[in-house]
Amino acid sequence: MKLEGAERDQTFTLVDAHCHWSTQHKECSANVTDIQWQPQLQGLEFNTITKRCVMSTNQWDWLSVKKLAEFDDEQFKIAFGIHPWYSHLFSTGSEYSTTLENKRNHYQNVLQYKSSQQEEFDCLIETLPHPLNVYDYIDSHFNKELVSCIGEIGLDKIFRLPRNGYYTSSSEPQQLSNIRVKMDHQLKILNILLDLSIKYSLPISVHDVKTHGVIFDVLKSRILSQQHIMICLHSFTGTAEFLKGNYLRVFGQERIFISFSKWINLDKNLNVFQEILKVLPKRCILTETDYTIDTNDRQQLARDLLYVNEQLKIYLDLESLEDITNLVKTNYIAFLSI
Ligand SMILES: [Zn+2]
């Protein structure tokens, strides 16, 4: 994208309201302080600063994500969460035994598979770690001084576990099993994280794949009365009618934020994006990459965010790029109450 005239010399503040840290073997994970976070974007026609809200999704990425807030809490706001793709790694009972039998019982209870897939299940059990008790995990890791948001949390109806038991940020394509996490277990984990959001009055960043109605019902019953809790539906792909008739009508535009990514909203669901913008008040708009910020090129992340801003500017018929970046920044501040 080429900028012209005065815009070329401006510095734009971009917002990545939903991004990630990679999940990989510890020895491969980058050190937070080794990365030059705001590089001069050499060779590009613009200067940018990015404000990021970084999600945590499991017990491994959390260890790096929490360091980001300790390193620079202006640039990084961090979220504490358990993503549905990792929800099976957590147990919700009061069973503390670490026997193999206990591990097997846990995964039998939370994973969904057919009897013909018993062999596949047995292989998975071998590679899966012993489950962590979710309440212990929260007690020992959640830190209200560092955390600005609860996320990534939510439900996913279609994902399948990789054969190694959980997603890692590997460059190799991961082979998928036919085994899924039961919806009732995903719901339990979601509800426990919503308890945390309610207890500390923290906004939530929500993952919703093919579960639009269920998530809406859960959020309505749990947090409608908690008027200070803001909701970000990240990379939302439900219909404009659903958004308008449910979230905007019931929660009101002050509490709902839709965060748009280049990857999901523009490249894969452009029609839905255009329809949503017809019903979505400007105050509800956020931007995101949904990418891992430690393993992706920071210049490319900035380019992607600028692309989303540029498209928003066009569809909303705004005058300048600054109009949209300022709007998104204002919305980001409102979402996180910062
Ligand atoms: Zn995400």
Keywords, please?
hydrolase activity, acting on ester bonds; metal ion binding; 338 residues; binds zinc ion; TIM Barrel; alpha/beta; 12 strands; two-stranded parallel sheet
Q: Can you give a write-up of this model?
A:
This is Amidohydrolase-related domain-containing protein. Pfam families: TatD_DNase (PF01026). A divalent metal cation 2 binds at residues 207, 234. Keywords: Metal-binding. The chain has 338 residues and is an alpha/beta fold. It has a single domain, classed as TIM Barrel (Alpha-Beta Barrel). It is built from 11 helices and 12 strands. The chain has helices at 61-71, 100-110, 118-127, 134-141, 183-200, 212-223, 240-251, 262-268, 270-279, 298-316, 321-336, and strands spanning 11-19, 47-54, 76-80, 90-91, 111-112, 132-133, 147-156, 180-181, 204-209, 231-234, 256-261, 285-288. The strands form 3 sheets. It has an 8-stranded parallel β-sheet. A two-stranded parallel ribbon has the order 4-6. Helix 7 runs parallel beside helix 9 and helix 10 crosses helix 11. Residues 18, 20, 55, 152, 207, 234, 290 line the site of zinc ion. Zinc ion binds at residues 18, 20, 55, 152, 207, 234, 290.
For the sheet with most strands, the description reads: 8 strands, parallel
Strands, total number: 12
The helix tally amounts to 11
Strand content bin? 15-25%
CATH architecture: Alpha-Beta Barrel
Average of pLDDT: 91
Structural class: alpha/beta
Q: What is the gist of this entry?
A:
By secondary structure, the protein is of the alpha/beta class. The chain has a single domain (5-336), classed as Alpha-Beta Barrel (TIM Barrel). The chain has helices spanning 61-71, 100-110, 118-127, 134-141, 183-200, 212-223, 240-251, 262-268, 270-279, 298-316, 321-336, and strands at 11-19, 47-54, 76-80, 90-91, 111-112, 132-133, 147-156, 180-181, 204-209, 231-234, 256-261, 285-288.
